[in-house]
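Tokens for chain A. Residues wanted.
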């Protein structure tokens, strides 16, 4: 930079730098568009076997980027804190099933640690689980988890945030 700036007057160098930054493409969707999942989704409501989950207060968002999913509680001022980290994928050859992988750990946390687990308010277990994608559109999503241990169906209704 020092050499280039010696050949160009300072104002022209600054203008050239700004123009370069403006026309350089940026990546907003790491790994592609994720078939509609990329971005932040607000979990509006949960039903349990078709009945509203009265305990859910509507304060969770899910964020999808590349193969990472994060569940975060938020408040009215949209403050967020990172909580449940995992990875996701589609079932092989089936983009109607979302696989969540909460099996991760690091040098400070063991598998099953709350940092690498779904938020308790979602009723989802740690480990690997499958959710049916009932609907996925540009502004809304609906997922259903069938708990094999209790035969309970949890349905999650999202809006794009």
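Reply:
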């Amino acid at each position: 930079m020092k050499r280039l700036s010696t050949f160009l007057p300072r104002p022209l160098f600054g203008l050239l730098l700004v123009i370069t930054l403006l026309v350089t493409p940026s990546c907003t969707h790491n790994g592609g568009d994720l078939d509609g999942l990329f971005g932040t989704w607000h979990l509006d409501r949960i039903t349990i076997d078709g009945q509203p989950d009265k305990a859910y207060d509507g304060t969770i968002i899910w964020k999808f980027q590349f193969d990472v999913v994060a569940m975060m509680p938020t408040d009215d001022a949209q403050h967020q804190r990172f909580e449940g980290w995992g990875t996701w994928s589609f079932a092989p050859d089936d983009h109607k099933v979302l696989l969540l992988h909460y099996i991760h750990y690091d040098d400070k946390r063991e598998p099953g640690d709350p940092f690498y687990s779904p938020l308790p308010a979602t009723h989802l277990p740690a480990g690997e689980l499958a959710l049916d994608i009932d609907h996925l559109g540009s502004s809304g999503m609906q997922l259903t988890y069938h708990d094999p241990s209790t035969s309970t169906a949890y349905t999650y209704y999202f809006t794009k945030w």
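The domain at 32-160 is CATH 2.40.128.280 (Lipocalin). The chain has one domain: 32-160.
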